[in-house]
Amino acid sequence: MARFIAVVLIAGGFVVFLQLYTKGVDRAFGGALARFGSDAGAQSGFAAEPAPRRQADFEERTPPRPIGQGVRERVTRSIETGARRHSGGN
Fold first, then answer.
1. Which of 33, 6, 1 is nearest to 17 (CA)?
2. Which one of 7, 68, 83, 90 is least enclosed by Cβ atoms within 10 Å?
3. What are the 10-residue block averages of pLDDT along the chain, 90 residues in total?
4. Residue 23 to residues 6, 11, 18, 19, 48: CA-CA distances in angstroms?
5. Residue 59: Cβ within 10 Å count
């Protein structure tokens, strides 16, 4: 029985933690915990909501080289160098 109660308490604590972590004190459980939250965010000079994300222009950058392309070029150069060395040609 004690193990069952411990599991229920741990699961309940985990649910409370996830609610507070994902929604914050002001919005967790439909705002029931808002009266316990501090107004430090409003007094600190920070905005209540985060700034909107900036859109990146991917067209301006050149696409990166595939990882295997550099390896392929090195292997090809090594094969050609070895072929020239063993064939006697310069």
1. 33
2. 90
3. 96 91 80 66 60 69 81 93 81
4. 26, 18, 8, 6, 13
5. 5
Q: Is position 50 within any domain? A: no
The residue range of the domain holding 23 is 1-37
Look up the pTM and report it: 0.37
3-state secondary structure of 10: helix
Tokens 């009266």 belong to residue: 35
- Dihedral of the CA atoms 25, 30, 36, 42 (nearest 10)? 60
Q: How many Å apart are CA 90 and CA 81, to the nearest integer?
A: 9
Half-sphere exposure at residue 3, Cβ-oriented, CA atoms within 13 angstroms:
0
Q: Is 47 left (phi over 0), alpha (psi -120 to 50) or beta?
A: beta
> Which residues have CB under 8 Å from 24's CB, separation 6+?
37
Look at residue 10 in the predicted model and tell me its pLDDT. 97
Residue 84 belongs to a domain: no
